[in-house]
Design goal:
Elements: H1 2-11, H2 24-28, E1 36-44, H3 49-65, E2 71-78, E3 86-93, H4 96-107, H5 111-121, E4 124-133
Antiparallel strand pairs: 1-3, 1-4, 2-3
Helix pairs in contact: 3-5
């Protein structure tokens, strides 16, 4: 009886658990072929912000509506707090990384988009992109009619 109790008691503490080999981002995100998001941060020269907004309003919706490009413009806005004179664009690529690569390769051949990038580059101080995987427990972001206020947060997984 005492040996049975001892082995039962030891079984509480002796369990060997194999460590996870997957990255946290893989454990928390949806499948690789689900949506991939790209968020672009463009720091615009203060004197160019109106011209920048006009230019992007002319070109970016065309990419969004063109069925040949597997991307959707989910959101488009300027910041009020934090970085001033900053434009943010949120793109969704249906089909994950393969869709992103397909879209990027097609854009390299699109003369109107290349002209847009050249004109846009004259208005920018800096730019930064991030690729974002969907969390499996969050709903998909949907475009909303504005004006709206958004809060951007960053999480660092440990």
């Amino acid at each position: 009886s005492r040996d049975a109790e001892g082995s039962w008691f030891r079984s509480l503490f002796v369990h060997k658990v194999d460590p996870r080999k997957d990255a946290h981002s893989n454990l928390l995100s949806k499948k690789e072929t689900s949506n991939l998001y790209k968020i672009q941060f463009h720091n615009v020269k203060p004197e160019c912000l109106d011209a920048y907004n006009s230019l992007t309003e002319e070109v970016l919706p065309k990419l969004h509506s063109d069925a040949d490009y597997p991307c959707d413009l989910v959101g488009n806005w300027n910041t009020w707090y934090g970085e001033q004179d900053q434009a943010v664009h949120l793109w969704r690529f249906s089909g994950g990384y393969p869709a992103l690569m397909d879209c990027m390769n097609k854009l390299k051949q699109n003369k109107e988009y290349l002209d847009f990038r050249k004109e846009r580059s004259r208005m920018l101080l800096s730019r930064r992109n991030q690729l974002l995987l969907e969390f499996s427990f969050w709903n998909e972001p949907l475009p909303r009619q504005g004006p709206n206020i958004y809060e951007l947060r960053t999480y660092k997984l440990k």
